[in-house]
Amino acid sequence: MASLIGYYSLIFGLCFSFLIIIFSVKNFRDSYNFNNKILSLTFLQLFFVVVSFLGLILSFVYSNFSNETVFNHSHTTKPLFYKISGTWGNHEGSLLLWLLVLTLFIFLFLLKSKKQNKKYRILTLLFQQIIIIGFFIFIIKTSNPFNYIFPIPSEGLGLNPILQDPALAIHPPILYLGYVGSSIIFSSTLSATSLNYISKEWAKHIKQWVLISWIFLTLGILLGSIWAYYELGWGGFWFWDPVENVSLMPWLALTALLHCIFVLEKRLALTSWVVVLSISTFTLSMCGTFLVRSGILNSVHTFANDPERGLFILIFLFCLIFLALFIFFFFHKVEKKKLTNFFWLSKETSILINNWFMMYFLSVVLIGTIYPIFLEVITSNKISVGPPFYNKLMIPFLVPFLLAMAIGPKLNWIKSELKIKFHSILILLVSILLSVFIIKSLNVSFLLNTILVSSAFYLFFVTLKDFFNKRFKFISQIIAHFGFSLLILSILFNNIFSTEIVTNLKIGETFENEKFKINFEMIETRNEQNFKEIIGKFNIVNFDGDVEILKPSLRIYNQPNILTSEADIKTNLLTDKFMTMNLIQNQEYFSIRYQIKPFMFWIWFSVLLISLGGLISFFQRQHEK
Amino acid sequence: MYGRKVKLRFFFVLLVLTTLILSIFLILKSLEENVVYFQSPSEIKVLSEIKKKKIRIGGMVKGNSIEMGSKEVKFIITDFKSEINVVYSGVVPNLFAEEKGAVVEGYLKDKNFFLATKILAKHDENYMPPEVKASLEEK
Asked: Could you give the CA distance from residue A625 to residue A113 in angstroms, rounded to a whole number?
């Protein structure tokens, strides 16, 4: 019943798209005022999509296995929380979520943009409806979440156990808010371009949307990373896996856009660049969906897929890109007033430098992700590109990037003098001395690490000083940049100070080296609603006598029958102690991995700080209005 | 003489072009160095020379071939035509099992012996790495 309602609401929603288009086109031509009927229609469309989504959630909650999606991804013994999160833990449901956010955002956009020009609002709505119609058709044609199966199975196939996790339950909605938020930026930029509406006021208004998407995208990536850290059992937080890259690319483009919007708002410069960035951000988000869902990528997220879907998204994507480029080349008027007052040493230049780096990082990630796909199509050579590639190309460029981040915000708009102040030199000296002091005693490559750590420290101290100098006007920027320096520092120290022990142990055996003694004491079993758990107990004795007990476990899920290992992590402010155990069939050995990872907490915390910067900026702007 | 505006723009274009060329060159160069090729056991048997580069080998883990010690795991990877002995020390993923697909990454010692630094397994029991599927289908 719920699925039936869901399905018909979906069709109704699509019909409303056409109604909205008809009304909007009429309103666009005829009258001077914005027709409020359009707003009601948009609300109704949103309402039907919400009903449809609720229909799917209810089908999951009541384990209605006549619905194919529910049958494929749910099970009666699954806890309620994961039944609900299972709704978007699969392809069909996650697309419905995309659609929900698309319609929600355009409705909010119409509500929030009442002060803007009528034509601009309607045209934005029209562009957004093109995207919405595309997704409606995509869902109904190739990935209907409400397919009926008969005879009705008595039990479902279950949700992949590694997805049964709190962080991953909220990861997709948050990430999608970021991804889909860029659709509003896309539609609005296209509409502003074709109406020649790009102005300082427009920049101010669209910046809110850029900030929202950016905050959610940052948080979404953070959640995914935390999940990968404790669930995949490698003890790392970023693997340069194609699926991670695909979320990082729109983030880089969006971050570049965020900085450019400032220039547009203050100086009405770089308009073409802003347009290009808006288009590419949304394109990259769509590409992300395409690459993840089409199964082209060989990654942890490719569970099951269907080439037809990939083809549809690809064609749709090309149509959108074509439309965007068409509008850009034919309607975009380059501002007559060229930058007459342009000086090298100014805030604009420093933001351009930021953009250069962002684009460079973006192209590295882009090439690393898609080069293997192309190579396979062209030469049928199968290759993979691993972390060394990214590390080698990114890390050296972090140094000037960090320094620019420290110096750039201090410059003035238009023209600025280079005043070498005593305390900034002092900070630089302190940073270098501190890094030399830390790195010198360690067994790592001295020069590279010292330079990296000192530049990160420099940004760290400069932003810290600004914070205490109470430059409240720039508080959001200071917090975000401070967060970034903290992130880089934590990652560097995490890399430098991590230790890892990998060994195979039988129950009762002890591993010993000069630093630790790991004793595999015993195992015990425990039965849960939908899995059986084998818990190992390990005594770890440090060389200075500290005793730590860690209990990693293995879960054997009933449906689908999959073994997962759950890491046991002891976290405190300074270090994480991380342990996983694995079992190989018919063997009495357990494979053990024990890691000491310093500053993990600070990695997560610094990303939170970065998004907090965005949040403060968002509310500051609200307030200024 | 050219005006200041023209000069500025010329300078700008030049800067963009140089960065572009430089970064493309850098990226392609390190791609060349850091790419890992995928091969099947049969392809390795016909190699003319053993390179020191890191590669990946995919296939099935032969039945009854896993031997576990306290330091390392030994097993045989097969594509039902040729076999390769693999030695690996490190954590073995959960879905690694006999008669299941696996991909190993590491260095070839000779045509029969492979020193693995990583075993890749996926999180879906029915999942088979596309490379393995393709190389098995060829047979």
From this structure: 13
